[in-house]
Specification:
- The structure is a single chain.
- The chain is globular and about 75 Å long.
- It has two domains: 9-115 and 306-332, ornithine cyclodeaminase, domain 1; 127-302, Rossmann fold.
- Helix content is 35%, strand content 23%.
- The protein has helices at 15-25, 27-43, 114-132, 149-160, 172-182, 195-199, 244-249, 257-263, 278-282, 304-318, 339-353, and strands at 9-13, 54-57, 62-69, 73-81, 95-101, 107-112, 139-143, 164-168, 188-191, 204-207, 214-218, 228-231, 240-242, 251-254, 276-277, 296-299, 325-328.
- 44% of the residues are buried.
- The protein starts with 8 loop residues before the first strand and ends with a helix.
- The structure holds nicotinamide-adenine-dinucleotide.
- Residues 81, 83, 86, 92-93, 117, 121, 143-148, 168-171, 174, 208-211, 215, 217, 232-233, 235, 300-302 line the site of nicotinamide-adenine-dinucleotide.
Length: 354
């Protein structure tokens, strides 16, 4: 994207520009197009250099780096997860990311990824549900009505046609805000008094709660035959949302097993418990939902290829728009290797300007 002569300038998408890009595209169109990029990259899974994310844990949270490459492009995301942050007016999850050209190693894009993570997580959940949810699903229980929740609802509407929501959060104001934010998007919304009430009549149950503990957001008696569970909130060692017995009754689908075994709901199960990799379903190598009575579980933790897809999509989407700034990020002397000379020339320039 940089014009000739501006090789050291890197397109940068600020939070403001990301919001403008998403709004100019339309939230549902953005989610649908992003889902297509995510699906395309899952389909060529074997082309990627894959590693479980590098996580630095502390008492109240985690900071993670999520790298991957397809040999032509390299991407990484910096992301945190700090459930207590909301008490001091901060986000639980914030992120930024970089896409680079493998041949030169030069960054092609630097972007905010807090909003983009919510979009890519929701788009990935909806892609998985397309293969796993019961046919004709229209009703979703949404438990945990924080930052991720509206994005999940919008993706399931755009990609699956979900138009009935049953909300539950331990903080009723969170459900109220979620309902208010989704007004005018064509949902029929009911706020429920408990998780048990929320799952009544739901075809899909999404859990997106945040608490650094082994929680039981869903207990075994809450999950009837035929349901698809989209478990988003359990994404760290010691941080889960589902009772173990549900896992034993479900067919479990995961992103990258070496990462999900550490971070996902399946950390509760022996390391050899059978799971299906989502990419194999998307590539047509393994079946998704096989029967109406089956309980399917997408044990979402978020994987680097999804961020790579999001970075790729944003870079393509930016073309022809002005929703970015050019950032002076790379020291790139006119004469390669004369980095110190560049510093001296700046010194001379500064002196002559005085
Ligand atoms: P958030 O803090 O904004 O919202 C979490 C909500 O859950 C809050 O409204 C809180 O009141 C509610 N909650 C907590 N305990 C609950 C309970 N027992 N029952 C019902 N509601 C409860 O967090 P967020 O940004 O929306 O993220 C939610 C979770 O999703 C986090 O754990 C985050 O780490 C995870 N996440 C996962 C992915 C992924 O790819 N799988 C991506 C982003 C975030």
């Amino acid at each position: 994207m940089p014009a000739p002569g501006t090789l050291n300038l890197v397109p940068f998408v600020s939070v403001e520009n990301m919001m403008n890009l998403v709004l100019a595209t339309g939230v549902e169109t953005f989610l649908t197009e992003l889902a297509a990029y995510i699906e395309e990259d899952f389909r060529r899974w074997e082309a990627f250099d894959k590693t479980a994310r590098v996580a630095s844990h502390s008492t109240d949270g985690v900071i993670e780096l999520m790298p991957t490459s397809d040999g032509r492009l390299y991407g990484f995301k910096y992301v945190n997860g700090h459930p207590k942050n909301t008490r001091t007016g901060r986000q639980t999850v914030t992120a930024f990311g970089v896409l680079s050209d493998v041949e030169s190693g030069y960054p092609l894009l630097l972007t905010e990824m807090t909003i983009l993570t919510a979009l890519r997580t929701a788009a990935t959940s909806a892609v998985a549900a397309r293969y796993l949810a019961p046919q004709g699903a229209r009703t979703m229980a949404l438990i945990g009505n924080g930052a991720q929740s509206e994005f999940q609802a919008m993706a399931f509407k755009a990609i699956l046609g979900i138009d009935r929501l049953r909300l539950f959060d331990i903080e009723p104001t969170a459900s109220e805000r979620c309902r208010r934010n989704l007004e005018g998007f064509g949902f029929d919304i009911e706020i429920c008094r408990s998780g048990e009430q929320a799952v009544e009549g739901a075809d899909i149950v999404t859990t997106a709660t945040a608490d650094k503990q082994s929680a039981t957001i869903l207990s075994d008696n809450m999950i009837g035959a035929g349901i698809h569970i989209n478990a988003v909130g359990g994404d760290c060692p010691g941080k889960t949302e589902l009772h173990r017995d549900i896992l034993l009754r479900s067919d479990i689908f995961v992103e990258f097993p070496p990462q999900t075994r550490i971070e996902g709901e399946i950390q509760q199960l022996p390391a050899d418990h059978p799971v299906t990799e989502l990419w194999q379903v998307i590539a047509g190598l393994k079946p998704g939902r096989r029967a109406a009575q089956q309980i399917t579980l997408f044990d979402s933790v978020g994987f680097a290829t999804e961020d790579f897809s999001a970075l790729r999509y944003v870079r393509d989407r930016l073309t022809g728009t002005d929703h970015f700034d050019m950032l002076d990020l790379l020291a790139d002397p006119d004469e390669p290797r004369d980095l110190f000379g560049m510093l001296l020339r700046r010194k001379a320039l500064n002196a002559s300007a005085q």
